[in-house]
Amino acid sequence: MNGRALRAVWAVAAKDARVALTERMSLLQALTLPLNYLIMMSLFALAGGHDPAALVMADHGSYARQFASSMAGARTFSITDASAQEAAARIRAGNLVAAVTIPPGFDTDIRDHQAATVRVVVNNLNQDLTDDAERGMRLALDQFYQSAAPGQVPVSVSFQDQYPGGDTGYISFLSMSVVVISVLVAGLLSAGNAAAREYEERTMRGLLLAPVRLRHILVGRILGSFLISLPSVAIVMAVVALLAGDRPQHPVAAAGTALLTLAGSCAAGAALGALARDRSVVAVITRALPVPLFFLTGVFAPLSYFPPAVQWMGGLLPVHYAVVLTQWGFRGLMTGTVPLAADAAILTAAFAAFAAAGAVALRWTARIRPARRRAVSRGR
Amino acid sequence: MTGTASARVSRPRAVLPRRDPGVPAVSLRDVTMVYKGRDEPSVDRLSLEVPAGGIFGLLGPNGAGKSTAISLVTGLAVPSAGTVEVFGRPPLRAKADVGVVSQDTALHTMLTVEYNLRYAARLRGYWGRPCRDRVAAGLRLARLEDFAGARVGTLSGGMSRRLAIACALIHDPRLIILDEPTAGVDPGERAMLWDHIRVLAGEGRTILLTTHLLDEAQALCGQVVILREGRIAAGPETPAALRRRYGGTTVTIRTGARKAALKAALAEIRAIDGVSHADAAPAAGGGSEVTVTAAAIDGIAGRVITALTSHGAGITDAVTSDAGLGEVFLRLTGFTQDEP
Questions:
Q1: By Cβ atoms counted within 10 A, which residue in A18, A138, A193, B268 is the most buried?
Q2: Per-residue confidence (pLDDT) for residue B275, from 0 to 100
Q3: How many inter-chain contacts (A to B, CB under 8 Å) are there?
Q4: pLDDT at res. B20
Q5: CB contact under 8 A, A376 and B41
Q6: d(CA A12, nearest CA chain B) in Å
Q7: B284: distance to nearest CA of chain A, Å?
Q8: What average pLDDT does the structure give for chain A?
Q9: Geometric angle at alpha carbon B87, from B107 and B134, rounded to 5°
Q10: Among A208, A363, A374, A376, which would you mutate to test the B interface (most chain B Cβ atoms within 10 Å of its Cβ)?
Q11: Smallest CA–CA distance from B80 into chain A, residue
Q12: Using CB atoms, which residue from B80, B106, B119 is nearest to A205?
């Protein structure tokens, strides 16, 4: 690319950035939409993170207290102490997943080697909550046995962490997908709006009449959208870093993945805007697309844990590879099915493919092409 | 053009040298364009040469193919058949020599007047001081120096149009294409824009003007072509030549002739080849008024007078008038002229 071409690229980029800055609502949207996703998905994770449960302690003996601490250690419940009446009222009101009652005489029964039953009222609002409560109680029971009667239970489970740095919080794990989707939304929205606006305001014609090559227009558009989206991406990454509670383990990889994803989404946005030629269409697609993508990219667990059909669909989506690289960049987690270098190569290839799609879309819409010769030869 | 108007819009710019002498500014050879989804061509085997220098008008009613022809010349449309050249080159290779002002002003309304000019200059490779000089010249040309920092969306229609012209001329193009340049502009602004266009032509540029306003074509164009259904209906010729060729002449004569003599004279007049209409009506103040409409024939007035006097009719007054371009347009296209 020679100096003249670079100048043309920069002219288009600077103009797009300036137009975006003058449209306050668009700017606000570009900044807030990724944050909205972050907040929305975090709330989703928070809702499922720790199930609220009430513990009714009808016995305060040492075994009863050990059982209560085993429940807390099961990492399933957010426990509050309550009376039997309070617990019943709260579960009726739908404020609890489970109301657990340690019965009177619990300690005595255990000392006498009698059966002791811990009563659990489960709010079986949905299967997931029921499963959580049952799993949590079994974990609590297992821990209780290990602590109350050490060495007497012949079978035990020994856990060894794959990642020595400790467990990754659910929100931390999920927020990596939020980062990628936020970057995707920012780029799509910014470039899509910039491209569609040119057609809506009929300024595209003036641009096409200038002695500038189509590919330089496209590069300028991607660059302008990239620059205007950077602040929102930086904000999202900073918020996620704060949520995760530590700095990215591989900052260059984390930042590089975000920038490459942003470039790819800007290229896709440029193609989308050129084809749609209408900002309302861009807005609808930009809002509709991320939700299915979000769930298809291994948001809750590595994609390899999912059924083959989901794996196949997720594998087709470049955002999956961006999520894998982001998980590694931030937390050092390996969640992909191919080596990291292959993830990076696929993501780069996706960017190239989107840029090519943008070029085709621009070329397709730039010049009015005639009907086929058959109609021409008909004449008059 | 008045001296005042000329001084108001002219710029200190040298007359452009005419490169490639003899090469027409625009050449369309047997060009046909059929849009997708349509059966009939919008431009049908159109052959046209626009000579370098001067103002060339492309007239026609809506749907005549004017805008399609412009799209072909600017390279925005690819012809179904035929060849389009601008200064002897394919349109896409001649972009640097062409400035286009389209019907819709196509400006960035959220940006300032100055930024629109700067953007136009930057797209054409001007940066730094040359860019600033071009912007300053553009502001002077558009007479918008006092509005440099104003958002384009706040400008009047005429101001926006002037800015669009300045943006299109930022790179000193040799060919300026003005597609309905005064559409939606008030009469005062239109007069100023006409002055503007004349000054640009005076600098040696070629101006290709499309319009459906016939007074505009008559006032500005050295040559005009009338398009109808994608083909040339008349031209290229000067507006005066078109009027003579297609408009014809109306001869109005007052006579004191008696009824029988008048009847015989009218019969003789109607027999003259080219006369389309001849009739008589009582004139105010006595006598009769004979009106004869004929194609442009040399000496038609004399032949009518001879026919009347040969039947003993005395002539008290005779007036000859040529048809206007509007009548020519109506005759050739079957459309009425839109109100300006």
A1: A193
A2: 79
A3: 106
A4: 59
A5: yes
A6: 8
A7: 52
A8: 85
A9: 40
A10: A376
A11: A370
A12: B106
Q: Which residues contact B231 (CB under 8 A, 6 or more apart)?
A: B44, B45, B46, B65
The pLDDT value given to residue B19: 55
Q: Residue A202 in 3-state DSSP?
A: coil
Q: What is the mean pLDDT of chain B?
A: 82
Model confidence over B81-140: pLDDT tens digits? 899 999 999 998 888 899 998 877 789 999 999 999 999 999 998 999 999 999 999 999
Question: pLDDT tens-digit profile of B17-51?
Answer: 445 567 889 999 999 988 887 778 888 899 999 99
**Any chain A CB within 8 A of the CB of B79?**
yes
Cα-flanking dihedrals φ and ψ of residue B318, to 5°? -145, 130
Which pLDDT value is given to residue A290? 80
* A375 to B124: CB separation less than 8 angstroms, yes or no: no
Contact A12 B100 (CB under 8 A): no
Domain with residues B249-322, CATH architecture: 2-Layer Sandwich (3.30)
Tens-digit pLDDT profile for residues A201-250 = 889 988 888 989 999 999 999 999 999 999 888 888 887 777 666 678 89
Interchain contact, B120 vs A206, CB within 8 Å? yes
Amino acid at A365: T
User: What CATH architecture does domain B3-108+151-244 belong to?
Assistant: 3-Layer(aba) Sandwich (3.40)
Please report which confidence band the pLDDT of residue B7 belongs to, taking 50, 70 and 90 as the band edges. Answer: very low
pLDDT value, residue B336: 45
Asked whether the CA dihedral B156, B159, B163, B164 is positive or negative, the reply is positive
Closest residue of B to A201, CA-based? B106
Residues of chain A with pLDDT under 50: 374-380
Query: Thinking of the domain A50-148, which architecture would CATH place it in?
Result: 3-Layer(aba) Sandwich (3.40)
Predicted local distance difference test score (pLDDT) of residue A218:
95
Q: Is B73 on the interface with A (CB under 8 A)?
A: no
Query: Which residues of chain A have a Cβ shorter than 8 Å from any chain B Cβ?
Result: 4, 7-8, 10-12, 14-15, 18-19, 22-23, 201-203, 205-212, 366-371, 373, 375-376, 378-380
Hey, where are the domains in chain A? 3-44+166-366, 50-148
What is the DSSP secondary structure assignment for residue A303, as one 8-state letter? G
B123 touches chain A (CB under 8 A): yes
Model pLDDT for residues A302-337, shown as the tens digit of each residue: 888 888 888 888 889 999 999 999 989 988 888 888
CB contact under 8 A, B110 and A207: no
B chain contacts of residue A18, beta-carbon cutoff 8 Å = 111, 115
State the Rg of chain B over Cα: 25
Question: How confident is the model over B171-217, as pLDDT tens digits?
Answer: 989 999 988 877 767 777 778 888 888 888 888 889 998 887 777 88
Q: Which residues of B touch A208 (CB under 8 A)?
A: 76
* CATH 3.30.70.100 boundaries in chain B: 249-322
- CA–CA min distance A325, chain B (Å): 38
Q: Find the mean pLDDT for residues B142-161.
A: 90
From A14, which residue of chain B is nearest by alpha-carbon distance?
A: B119
